[in-house]
Design goal:
heterodimer; A: about 260 residues; five-stranded mixed sheet; 3 helices; 16 strands; about 10% helix; B: mainly alpha; Cytochrome Bc1 Complex, Chain D, domain 2; two-stranded antiparallel sheet; about 35% helix; about 0% strand
Chain lengths: ~260, ~350
């Protein structure tokens, strides 16, 4: 009898809990930023995938690498993280929790908005291609870093910093495909690349009323050249940390440049 | 007739009780779910800092651990290859079966005291308890599923939304929450109440044979199988021949370093009497076979551990004593603790 009473009371608790209102309901938030008094604004970063001078077209367009290999690209994504902005007065602002997966598989152009950026004129940006080592050793993450995003190795913990896949008649693989899953965050396998693409004397002017946009070009052809010319006959499957991954990362360290800045 | 009716009633009552919410049965006192650091043990590697251990988190983790929806065809749960009655090893399986009867390439290790592990798997490839389950869930020869599908399936199961809400404050189901709940359940698998532990605390005494075995253990085994966890978590080549069908290079698969060829993580000897078969490929069925390997079976190779160059010589009597000692490492409190059982069975 006691047990039944317990069950009934437990069940009623469950029922009541189910009836509770969702606490995360949107509240009526009148957060109108007055442009005269605003201390923060927004900044948009846009990445456009290119192959040399041509905008990336997935799957159907053939491009030629520095080695003379013909390639079609089917997958191209990479992490951008740890963004720091520098104002014209040399003060800096580091965007907290800045982890973005730039996924060119949805569109050749990918944009994201940085919120709560202090108002001011910015002349430089610093960011990481990849995910810092700390987040590679901190367990299950969320958002862009969710292991479900397909940019995380399950058998040997760590993020895939950059993923490039496609086909090439010159590929040494039987299926004429190639897979570059570039990762490695520690010791000699570290492929993390800090980059500071130049604004070419331009500035991004963040204010309460203006949301500037920095438009980057990400040039896939750079992944295949300088300093290491990649030969697809021999280098078609790089899916573990190590020497080859490091060589490819050395190549892509200069793949991102600023095309222009809208103010 | 009357009796028959009574039986039917009784059976109905029993069946009805079986359907009760898993939270109620088996009873689970909240204070039973807590972080444990036995006296004299090192600080755990994982301390639930960002994932506070709660009864609700444990219950959700337990449901997920026994949830076949984690596999592609909904046939296999974590608990199928990690069975409580053998300290969460896989009884009688040298290699484990995945979906569609596929065979894995490693022996499923037992699960306990996981919060002390700096890395997981025989090759140490996984660096964190929270992301460990991703490996078996996504491995094509194990559960062969994606986290995306797992989340979709759990959302369609009525009881999970409530369990996620109870555990994490709202009912959204995410990879991080799945992994953290599993970490709460598996991280709570503490094994520290074996006879050996009682002897160390002065609450029990070894038999003469067990004591001789312990002395031998300290002398010949304890460098790698370091007390009190009974492993130093290092990677060693312990002189096993390479299984030609598996060609498993062990730690080298992760580091790419030829010096790591054929090295595997030193397993804990706790509950070792229950966790047959032994070694990374489950090649030995008995402790006798394991000890005979160290006595007579060491295969020389460039990465063989220096301590094993000449094997571990011991007499037949010493071997028997050692086995007697190894039996004292079985933790019946852990094996019979009902809170780790599948609540739906």
């Amino acid at each position: 009898m006691k047990k039944i009473a317990l069950i009934i009371s437990a069940l009623s608790i469950i029922t009541f809990t189910n009836c509770k209102k969702d606490p995360s309901e949107p509240s009526n938030n009148n957060n109108n930023n007055n442009s005269n008094t605003a201390t923060t604004g927004k900044l948009i970063l846009t990445f456009e995938a290119m192959f040399g001078d041509s905008a990336l077209v997935l799957n159907n367009k053939t491009y030629v690498t520095a080695n003379g290999d013909s390639v079609k690209i089917s997958t191209f994504k990479y992490y951008i993280s740890n963004i720091t902005l520098t104002k014209t007065d040399n003060s800096t602002y580091t965007v907290p929790e800045s982890y973005y997966l730039v996924n060119h598989n949805s569109s050749s152009t990918v944009s994201f908005t940085l919120n709560n950026i202090p108002v001011g004129q910015y002349k430089a940006i610093k960011m990481l291609i990849g995910v810092d080592s700390a987040r590679n050793v901190s367990g299950a993450q969320t958002g862009a870093l969710d292991p479900a995003n397909g940019m995380f190795w399950s058998w040997s913990t760590g993020y895939i910093m950059l993923k490039l896949e496609g086909t090439s008649p010159q590929s040494g693989s039987a299926s004429k495909s190639f897979f570059y899953h570039i990762g490695g965050f520690s010791g000699t396998n570290n492929v993390l690349k800090w980059i500071t693409p130049s604004f070419n004397s331009a500035t991004a002017n963040v204010s309460g009323s203006m949301t500037p946009e920095i438009h980057f070009k990400t040039d896939i052809s750079e992944i295949f050249k300088t300093p290491n010319t990649i030969n697809l006959a021999t280098t078609y499957n790089v899916t573990t940390p190590g020497l080859m991954a490091k060589m490819i990362a050395d190549n892509y360290a200069d793949m991102i440049t600023v095309e222009h800045i809208h103010n | 007739m009357k009796q028959q009716v009574a039986y039917i009633l009784l059976i109905t009552v029993l069946f009805t009780q079986c359907k009760v919410d898993p939270e109620i049965k088996p009873a689970l006192p909240a204070d039973d779910i807590r972080v444990v650091v036995p006296e004299g043990w090192p600080r755990p590697h994982y301390n639930f800092e960002n994932n506070p251990l709660t009864k609700e988190g444990f219950i959700l983790g337990r449901s997920l651990f026994y949830e076949p929806a984690l596999s592609r065809d909904n046939t296999i749960s974590c608990g199928d290859c990690h069975q409580h009655f053998v300290a969460f090893a896989n009884a009688g399986h040298s290699l484990s079966h995945g979906v569609n009867g596929q065979l894995g390439n490693r022996n499923a290790p037992p699960l306990f005291n996981l919060t002390w592990h700096p890395y997981f798997m025989w090759d140490g490839g996984i660096n964190h308890i929270e992301v460990q389950p991703l490996a078996p869930i996504t491995n094509p020869v194990e559960m062969d599923e994606t986290m995306e599908n797992v989340i979709a399936k759990l959302k369609n199961k009525s009881n999970y939304r409530k369990m996620f809400k109870d555990a994490f404050g709202d009912d959204s189901i995410t990879t991080q929450r799945i992994f953290r709940a599993l970490a709460q359940f598996m991280g709570s698998m503490y094994s520290y109440q074996s006879k050996y532990d009682m002897v160390k605390k002065g609450k029990a005494t070894f038999s003469a044979a067990e004591q001789r075995g312990y002395n031998l253990f300290v002398q010949k085994c304890a460098i790698c199988h370091k007390e009190p966890l009974m492993t130093d978590f290092s990677f060693k080549n312990n002189g096993l021949s390479v299984n030609p069908a598996l060609q498993d290079s062990g730690r080298m698969r992760i580091t790419g370093n030829p010096n790591d060829r054929n090295k595997f993580k030193v397993p804990s000897l706790r509950n070792v009497a229950l966790t047959s078969p032994y070694m990374h490929d489950g090649r030995f069925e008995t402790l006798e076979q394991v000890l005979d390997h160290y006595r007579f079976g060491i295969v020389q190779s460039p990465t063989l551990d220096t301590l094993l160059q000449n094997g571990i010589p011991m007499s037949d009597q010493e071997k028997q004593d050692l086995i007697q000692f190894l039996y004292t490492l079985t933790d019946y409190e852990f094996i019979y603790d009902k809170k780790f059982d599948n609540p739906n069975r």
